[in-house]
Amino acid sequence: MKNILLGLLILPQFFISQKKDSIVIDEKPKFETKKLIVPLSLMATGTAVLLTEKRDVPVTENKNFLAFGGYFEDYAQFSPHASIYIFELAGMKPKTDFWNRTAILTKSQIIVLGSSYLLKKLIKQPRPDGSNEFGFPSGHSAIAFSGATMLSIEYGENYPWVPYAAYTVASGVGALRVAHNKHYWSDVIFGAGLGILSTKIAYWTHQYQWNKKSEKDNLTILYREHL
After folding, report:
1. pLDDT exceeds cutoff 80 at 15
2. Residue 209: how many CB atoms within 10 A of its CB?
3. What is this structure's pTM?
């Protein structure tokens, strides 16, 4: 009799826990071809502008790849990334738990930094100020837009104003790179698309390894609670 009562207590909880787990899995951003339109369009536009613009400036020895010259955008590029955690501390609810969110952010930055560096090395386009030949694409823009995309995914559903704020900041970073004579518009436009695509890839390929209980774990915990 005791076992029957225990089973009646466990089964409803088990199905509820399975429903919760399925919700977490369903919330994972799924790959859709239409979601490639914006980043690929930006990258294509940036490439087209690159092929038509004049970049005939002298190139000097590269002494500062990251181009951290004390400009505001050198720090503002990371503000969307910081906001991913600051917003939660302020009481806003993100889409993904801390550990999975951090893993996605890390993966996104590995993709965006690795791909932008590789493209800079392969394409070797000069900056407007002639400081080096790592002009295309804009790393600052790629980083800022990757963070803005993640911030929008995490909070945009519950807080519709977040994407507007995030992409405004990212656009400002790109504009400042042009204003400070560090990049052409082609660099910034392509970098924006690259940043958006990098974060989307990070979400699409993430497996959500943490904060998930197996069927066995759920039954074990419930059994112990009712002993």
Report:
1. no
2. 9
3. 0.77
